[in-house]
Amino acid sequence: EWAMKSCPKWNPNVFSRRKYRKKYREAAKECWESPEWQRLICDYKAGQRQLNTYPWPYADPKFADWEEDDSRKGYNLISDQSGCVIKHSTSYCAWKIFEATGQWPQKLTDQRLDAKNWQRFLAEAGYTTTVERLNRNHCYVGIKPDEGEFGLVVWAESIELAIGGVNVSTYVDRQYKFMTVDSRLYTWVEIS
User: Fold this and answer.
1) Cys bridge to 139: 59, 167, 170, 191, which one at CB 3.0-4.6 A?
2) Is this structure's pTM higher than 0.90?
3) What are phi and psi of 155, to 5 degrees?
């Protein structure tokens, strides 16, 4: 309900929308900081690589489950703390950056946060190092700007040196995906 009331499509009052957006973000932050969630993250970092750590409410299929509309009159997209639309690869990778660094990446320009624009977005957020070979001791976002209409960003989970691939996690069609990709098809930006 808070998410719906934060959208112009259902709530024309801009001040009221901000209040509701703040409420669902505060509830999400409270959940992320809970001991249960922190224990889950520790288990994940200890080696359970295929765990989707994208948090509630963003990963909840019932949260903002309406058909998306970004037209001026019917705008109803819900964004995360970085300004990325939830349940998309950009929001998922912004969360993974927050998880790895403790900081949400923030955009500095009015440019849309489509995945195809993420190299510029990451540079604005201070992540400028691109690499061709991934190192197991670092975190990376992979950018594939020519994937579909909006591009695709992925989070490197593990490097498969024997096959030249990278195990990645992302969101595609508003669903979590864990897959192996050819590392040569992506631009890799080092996060930490």
Assistant:
1) 191
2) no
3) -105, 125
Q: How many C-beta atoms lie closer than 10 Å to residue 168's C-beta?
A: 24
What six digits make up the tokens of 92? 């998922």
How far, in Å, CA of 87 to CA of 74, rounded?
19
Q: How many CB atoms lie within 10 A of CB 15?
A: 7
Q: What is the distance between the alpha carbons of residues 158 and 161, in angstroms, rounded to a whole number? A: 9
C-beta of residue 87 within 8 angstroms of C-beta of residue 174: yes
Characterise 83 by phi-psi region: left (phi > 0), alpha (psi -120 to 50), beta (else). Answer: left
The pLDDT of residue 75 is above 80:
yes
DSSP track, 71-140: STTT----B-TTSPBTTSHHHHHHHHHHHHHS------SSS---GGGHHHHHHHTT---EESS--TTS-E
- Which of residues 6 and 180 earns the better pLDDT score? 180
Q: Which residues are within 8 A (CB) of 140 and not within 5 positions of it... i.e. 6 or more apart?
A: 131, 134, 155, 156, 188, 189, 190, 191
Contact (CB, 8 A) for 156 and 188: yes
